[in-house]
Task: structure prediction
Amino acid sequence: MKIAFFDTKPYDLTYFEPMGKEAGIQFKFYETKLNENTASLARGCDGVCAFVNDVVTAAVIDALCDIGVRILALRCAGFNNVDMRHAEGKLTVVRVPAYSPYAVAEHAMALLLTSIRRIHKAYIRTRDYNFSLNNMVGFDLHGKTVGIVGTGKIGRVFADICKGFGMKILAYDKYPSPLEGVSYVPLDQLLRESDIISLHCPLTEESRHLIGYDTLPILKKGVVIINTSRGGLINAEALLEGIKSRQIGAACLDVYEEEGDLFYEDNSGHILEDDVLARLISMPNVIVTSHQAFLTSDALYNIAETTVANLVSFRETGTCENEILLSHL
Ligand code: NAI
Result:
């Protein structure tokens, strides 16, 4: 089985190369992202393996089908980057539904603690022998209210971590299921009452810009917003407004709506064209990481293992339990 592997990073090779070899899968690794211009690189392959910022439009799907590709193996959980309606009946699309909810939930907490205890500032100061504590006052998490939007695999782990800190936990989920120590409330109540809001729901038409101009006025003054889910959940311009007006006290962003051409790449020698992102990054109370919440050795191992198992299952049976069906939309 031959698979064209797009958007390859060095850490992908470490895990995919040996596991592929053992399973009789030959990966052809390409650094470029999958798009209309690069789809032809998959000629002669049975399938393609893509990641979060490979945008799989209807045109890409048609181009892949034309050259005989039969399976798209996403090595991630989210699939908002794939035109699933167009793929139906043409291309089997599989994913890795869970690889380490701990990696993402722990990163969300790492961002929160870094932000509110000013660790990022302290790290820079003490390297310059600046031991002043001015402007370093934080606040306790104990007793504060955290609002979790989406209590699936990652949201639940984040709730457990917050319980350990002695926080009061509010949650909103489209399909709530009872969780000890967690109070489900309507979304607007969560937005009004939370000192900290952490987003863990998928990006859909319904959840797009869940934090935006409409919701900004009802947020508790000084709220800390954490987004480790998908950039489109937040309208970045509205977020910037909220930061400038002091309505939002801090933002911790692992994802950004327009991250596609920027994140995962070294742009340090370039002039950033995205003024909103540049302004956000310039704020003392905004921390940005470049979609790295998943990036632990444990998660990478699990991603490679499940992706290879998905491909083997498709090769041997023509089906796969991790196939994305239209009913998942
Ligand atoms: P999951 O599918 O286990 O849980 C998602 C939860 O969101 C479900 O309980 C679902 O009922 C709920 N939900 C769906 N639509 C909703 C809406 N409109 N409002 C509120 N809740 C809604 O997914 P999991 O594994 O917990 O992942 C959550 C998200 O994290 C993924 O969608 C993905 O976008 C993101 N992610 C980010 C990573 C990173 O590296 N930053 C890595 C992995 C996932």
User: Anything to note?
Assistant: DSSP finds ten helices and twelve strands in the chain. The longest strand covers residues 248-253. Residues 77-78, 98, 101, 104, 149-155, 172-175, 200-202, 204, 206-207, 228-230, 254-255, 291, 293-294 surround NAI (CB under 6 Å). The radius of gyration is 21 Å.
